[in-house]
């Protein structure tokens, strides 16, 4: 199966090439030229498999230039001992909410689900495409991608990775996780600006052909670990299908029964992966896109106009503090086709906004619903979920749970709703402890203890370990200096 650009101006490429390049030469995002389908038999078979086997089977439907055996061996490594237990368990919270916990990996956020496997896919892609240069991975992060990518790529041969995060836009734990990163091929840099500034900086470097030539002469080419890369998205389809199978196996839903899906959303990668599973044939009703007060997507689903011209808010769910949701382009492409996507994106680049044609909007509005959760609602949700269900959630998951509850009330929806839980509550311990009315201070170790004692939950060792590690990366730069920092890093 080949991959085509959402903007229609680049030649189709193989999956390995799409993963290697990250972004299409015309600035568009790669999409499979057709979506494979899950027959009833396949779904039944998937129900009987382990997580790694499900992952290999589903990914082999998209990555047709990888063999099933290659994928199975990679998935077994990616989703084995690196995770504390089952990779993606589903937990019942109340009558209808089913929380899909995606944070049992090495960095305690859902990004591990993709970034534990993706470096393996890229290593194979280098061989499959006859590439002889070193892959230089540039990552803009709102906090969680950075650490997950560093952990996934560290000491992977023929790769180097440089991560850029907004200097005041990540939690203390997130910052420590990144600045203490080990490995001989890694670099971490803070940016004076917000996530969009970091992302725009990385995108600009990717679009700079002179710079590409300079890197080429040094034996490097650029690749991306952000969710614009298809290699990030395809592993994310797996856990929605897997959750549905697990609910069937438990008898919580009948075979063939529909679920709704609610996802705390930033760059729109996670929820897009969920939508793709519906196109494959997974029984899913509606998609609830949950945002924090950076609610550009809520307005988009309500009106059909995407308008990023608004204030940027720093919230307690920082991994969703985003005004340009890159992967929305893929949804637009699925609804409107390449020609119109190119126009909408040109308008976004020029005016910071676009309005969908009525037809395109109707298609999207039939599938998606947008809700946003204010800071106060988020804190209240953390407390109320813990008080009612003795279940502890992080700020991002609380944004989604609150949205899911309002959606269920508004629509008297009958489906079970799978809510993606995207981070361990300990990753945002101060905000979570504060929401519960506990005492917080600047000492993370103390906050971890307080939270653990009050909630009888375990402190993840992945997070307590970084508190005592040496800080390796202290550089702060302006977005204009990112190119120079890249050259510095590889020199
Ligand atoms: C990245 C992230 C999100 C947003 O996911 P997208 O795929 O960018 O929409 C939500 N919650 C957490 C904890 C994250 O790390």
Roughly what fraction of the amino acids lie in strands? 15-25%
Using only C-alpha atoms, the radius of gyration works out to 21 Å
CATH domain topology of one domain: Rossmann fold
Kindly report the average pLDDT value. 95
User: Numbering strands along the chain, what is their spatial order in the largest sheet?
Assistant: 3-4-14-9-10-13
DSSP strand tally? 15
Determine the structural class based on helices, strands and strand pairing.
alpha/beta
CATH architecture assignment of one domain: 3-Layer(aba) Sandwich
Shape: globular
The CATH C-level name of one domain is Alpha Beta
Short recap of the structure:
By secondary structure, this protein is α/β, with parallel strands linked by helices. The protein has helices spanning 15-21, 40-47, 51-62, 68-78, 111-115, 118-128, 144-153, 172-179, 195-206, 209-217, 230-250, 269-280, 296-303, 328-336, 338-351, 358-365, 375-389, 395-411, 429-435, 444-455, 461-466, 482-490; strands spanning 3-5, 30-32, 90-93, 97-101, 134-140, 159-166, 186-191, 220-224, 259-264, 284-291, 305-307, 353-355, 368-372, 416-421, 476-477.
What labels would you give this structure?
alpha/beta; Rossmann fold; six-stranded mixed β-sheet; five-stranded parallel β-sheet; 15% strand; binds pyridoxal-5'-phosphate
Describe the structure.
With 491 residues, this protein is an alpha/beta fold. It has a domain at 90-106 and 231-459: 3-Layer(aba) Sandwich (Rossmann fold), CATH 3.40.50.1100. The chain has helices at 15-21, 40-47, 51-62, 68-78, 111-115, 118-128, 144-153, 172-179, 195-206, 209-217, 230-250, 269-280, 296-303, 328-336, 338-351, 358-365, 375-389, 395-411, 429-435, 444-455, 461-466, 482-490; strands at residues 3-5, 30-32, 90-93, 97-101, 134-140, 159-166, 186-191, 220-224, 259-264, 284-291, 305-307, 353-355, 368-372, 416-421, 476-477. The strands form 4 sheets. A 6-stranded mixed beta sheet has the order 3-4-14-9-10-13, sandwiched between helices. Strands 8-5-6-7-15 form a 5-stranded parallel beta sheet, sandwiched between helices. A two-stranded antiparallel ribbon has the order 1-2. Helix 1 (15-21) packs across helix 6 and helix 14 crosses helix 15. The chain is globular. The mean pLDDT is 95.
């Amino acid at each position: 199966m080949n991959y085509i650009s959402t903007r229609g101006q680049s030649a189709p490429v193989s999956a390995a090439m799409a993963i290697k390049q990250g972004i299409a030469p015309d600035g568009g995002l790669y999409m499979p030229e057709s979506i494979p389908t899950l027959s009833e038999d396949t779904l039944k078979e998937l129900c009987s498999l382990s997580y790694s086997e499900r992952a290999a089977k589903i990914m082999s439907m998209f990555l047709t230039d990888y063999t099933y055996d290659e994928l199975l061996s990679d998935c077994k490594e990616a989703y084995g001992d690196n995770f504390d237990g089952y990779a993606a368990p589903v937990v019942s919270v109340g009558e209808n909410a089913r929380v899909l916990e995606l944070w049992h990996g090495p960095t305690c956020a859902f990004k591990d689900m993709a970034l534990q496997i993706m470096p393996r896919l890229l290593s194979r892609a280098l061989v499959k495409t006859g590439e002889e240069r070193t892959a230089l991975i540039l990552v803009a992060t709102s906090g969680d991608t950075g650490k997950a990518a560093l952990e996934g790529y560290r000491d992977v041969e023929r790769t180097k990775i440089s991560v850029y995060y907004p200097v005041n836009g990540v939690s203390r734990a997130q910052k420590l996780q990144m600045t203490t990163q080990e490995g001989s091929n890694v670099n971490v840099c803070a940016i004076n600006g917000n996530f969009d500034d970091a992302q725009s900086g990385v995108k600009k470097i990717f679009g700079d052909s002179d710079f590409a030539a300079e890197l080429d002469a040094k034996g490097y080419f650029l690749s991306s670990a952000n969710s614009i890369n298809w290699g990030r998205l395809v592993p994310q389809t797996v856990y929605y299908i897997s959750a549905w199978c697990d609910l069937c196996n438990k008898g919580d839903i009948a075979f063939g029964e529909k679920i709704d899906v609610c996802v705390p959303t930033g760059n729109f990668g996670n929820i897009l992966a969920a939508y793709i599973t519906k196109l494959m044939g997974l029984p899913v009703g509606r998609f609830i896109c949950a945002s924090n007060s950076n609610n550009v997507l809520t307005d988009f689903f309500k009106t059909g106009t995407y308008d990023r011209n608004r204030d940027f808010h720093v919230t307690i769910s920082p991994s969703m503090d985003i005004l340009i949701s890159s992967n929305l382009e893929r949804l637009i492409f699925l609804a409107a086709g390449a020609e119109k996507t190119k126009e909408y994106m040109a308008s976004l680049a020029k005016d910071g906004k676009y309005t969908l044609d009525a037809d395109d909007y109707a298609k999207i509005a039939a599938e998606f619903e947008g809700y946003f959760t204010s800071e106060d609602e988020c804190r209240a949700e953390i407390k109320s979920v813990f008080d009612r269900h003795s279940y502890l959630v992080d700020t991002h998951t609380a944004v989604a749970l609150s949205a899911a509850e309002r959606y269920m009330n508004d629509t008297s929806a009958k489906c079970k709703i799978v809510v993606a839980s995207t981070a361990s509550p300990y990753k945002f311990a101060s905000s979570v402890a504060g929401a519960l009315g506990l005492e917080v201070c600047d000492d993370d170790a103390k906050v971890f203890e307080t939270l653990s004692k009050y909630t009888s939950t375990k402190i993840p060792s992945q997070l307590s370990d970084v508190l005592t590690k040496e800080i390796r990366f202290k550089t702060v730069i302006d977005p204009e200096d990112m190119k120079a920092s890249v050259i510095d890093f590889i020199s």
